[in-house]
Predict the structure.
Amino acid sequence: MTTSTWLSLDEALARIKAKFPTVKQTTLCHIDTCLGRITAQDIVAPVSVPPRAVSAMDGYAINTSVGKQNSCLPVVTTIFAGMDATDVTLEPGHAARIMTGAPVPMGADAVVMQENTTQRENTVCITQWPDRGENIRPQGNDIFQGDIIVEKGTRLQASHLMLLASVGMRECPVTAALKVAVLATGDELITPGTPLEAGQIYNANSVGVKALLHPYQADITDLGICVDDPAKLRDTLLTASKQFDILISSGGVSVGDADYVKDILDEIGEVDFWKVAIKPGKPFAFGQIGKCVFCGLPGNPVSAYVTTEKLVTPLIAMMQGEQRSLNDLTGLAVLGSSIRRRPGRQEFLRARLEINQDGGWHVTPLAKQSSGVMSTVTQANAYIVVPAETAFIESGTQVQVSPFRSVN
Ligand code: AMP
Ligand code: MG
């Protein structure tokens, strides 16, 4: 079914979600290389962390039942991290010198930090008598064997990888990497690094799309630039559709005389929708060619950037099986200058979000909001999200803001 009417961003995302299932194949990925991948199942801890009670401090292990403030105890042994202390038993009234991470011997129920002691030869005097359990990390304090430590559908971040390593896992089951192709279209485009001739501009979109997709860890291929020639474009799209799960083009989706992408998609595949009521971001051709999902981004760089962020990355996340998306934080901030605009589309205004002297969040839209002005995307640190029906927002009003994400 083709929709030629305008869809809201949420409607477009719902249609994408309804249409495309999660990739079925899973693979085992070495923890050194699975940053950003999606877990294919709940991950269960094979061991506890710590595997047994250990000291949280450099100091002295004691038994709190014998002694009090300023008691002096004989130091009978020294235990280092890495030692096997299973056969060491501490008698009440004795102390064991112990290092951070070293196993707490049987019979000890607290560790006194070194700073709360004075030492004389083989005796330690305790200036601050500890509570029972103090400075001991009990077995399983972080993780118990059998706990689910990472849920299915999680995008693996540095913290998850450390957790997997801490339970001894060298590999993690993840969903298979999606094969994604990126293509720029336009007679005027040339690759950065070559001198510019009359009529030409540099292909800016491809590098931006690839960089925006980087945190999603797809298997990305850059197909370069295709000229505005229907036969060449048809051939390029058809060939790519047989090799990739997702094909992302930019340019040629509008209504100009050299805009062939939508018609070709209609001819060799299916157009699902091509009008999403967001600004920047008009038009965005979405459909499929055979089994390959097709995203036709607008040519204007800011529109290509925003549609990649708002439509393509959620599509990739859904197909990868991500359950909780990389957080798109939104909040409220006080508007620094009035906004007047033509209603109709939800708008993402490039803006500077700042904390003022009284600690409140303030946001001011940048002057240049044209979809050809990429420089203001680099100057901005947030979008002001303006509802579709809004025509005017007065300075001083609270508006919805969505801070830019930093690269993970
Ligand atoms: P189009 O939709 O093909 O008419 O493109 C709209 C505008 O975006 C035109 O000014 C194009 O020159 C420009 N444009 C298209 N593709 C790119 C690209 N890959 N990088 C930079 N600008 C582009
Ligand atoms: Mg073009």
Observations:
- Residues 70 and 127 are 5 Å apart (CA to CA).
- The pocket of adenosine monophosphate (ligand 1) is lined by residues 184, 186, 188-189, 201, 203-205, 250-254, 256, 259, 298-301 (CB under 6 Å).
- The two ends are 37 Å apart (CA to CA).
